[in-house]
Design brief:
binds magnesium ion, binds BIS(adenosine)-5'-pentaphosphate, five-stranded parallel beta sheet, single chain, 8 strands
Length: 209
């Protein structure tokens, strides 16, 4: 069974998914992380994907399908969190058409107002090595510029520049918000207030699960 973790860019999907992995034994599939790994590895898929990601646009669905299937097969038999997929109605239907093992049991919407999203994304710093996420004021690493988890350098994600954030938010409203209604109609949609400290949000999330 799958739990879909959805929400706008910067809503805290990655942060909360990492806590659920550490504390509740979930396996996480993040399509954003998988695409960034392809870019890092210099693959053809990564080269194509980066042209869309750099602009804050969605990567074509067809490129995501192989990634999704291979990531799912690696976590067979586990409880799985899906962070960043589905991002449009076609992807939601694709996911629905996969094996029964991958039925979506809950679609959790981390709901955060847009002013806070911009603040979170503009201050986010990401580990170059392990992908851990911090914030310059709201979730500071112990040593400035250094990842608490693996000691590597922190950097700003290229799509966190203000202009690209605006594009990502518009894409979210247009393409991803309809997915919320899709899950409402299936009876698996749960809204979780994403404002407040990461621990407060985590408690609400646990309750929702
Ligand atoms: P992806 O990597 O999925 O990015 P996203 O959806 O834009 O979401 P983010 O990772 O930016 O935010 P998040 O919700 O994970 O927030 P985080 O926990 O980091 O996708 C990137 C790109 O890949 C897309 O634009 C697209 O091009 C492509 N892509 C991926 N999947 C695709 C798909 N299925 N189809 C097509 N294209 C796809 O938190 C943000 C910040 O806030 C951090 O600094 C964090 O420390 C801080 N923070 C978190 N929680 C709190 C809190 N409670 N209080 C204060 N600060 C907090
Ligand atoms: Mg993320």
């Amino acid at each position: 069974m799958i739990v879909v973790l959805t929400g706008a860019p910067g809503a805290g999907k990655g942060t909360q998914a990492d806590l659920l992995v550490e504390r509740q034994g979930y396996k996480k599939i993040s399509t954003g992380d998988a695409l960034r790994n392809q870019i890092k590895g210099g693959t053809e898929l990564g080269k194509t994907a980066s042209q869309f990601m750099e602009k804050g646009e969605l990567v074509p669905d067809a490129l995501l399908l192989d990634i999704l299937k291979s990531e799912l097969s690696a976590v067979a038999g586990h409880k799985v969190l899906l962070d960043g997929y589905p991002r449009n109605l076609d992807q939601a239907k694709t996911l629905e058409g996969l094996a029964a093992e991958w039925t979506v049991g809950k679609a959790i919407h981390l709901d955060v107002e847009s002013k806070q999203l911009v603040e979170r994304l503009s201050g986010r710093r990401t580990c170059l090595n392990c992908g851990a996420t911090f914030h310059m004021t709201m979730n500071r690493p112990e040593k400035e510029g250094i990842c608490d988890k693996c000691g590597s350098g922190l950097t700003q994600r290229p799509d966190d520049e203000v202009k690209k954030v605006q594009t990502r938010l518009t894409v979210y409203e247009k393409s991803t918000e309809p997915v919320l209604d899709f899950y409402r109609s299936k009876g698996v949609y749960v809204r979780v207030d994403g404002l407040g400290s990461t621990e407060d949000v985590y408690s609400r999330l646990l309750e929702a699960l």
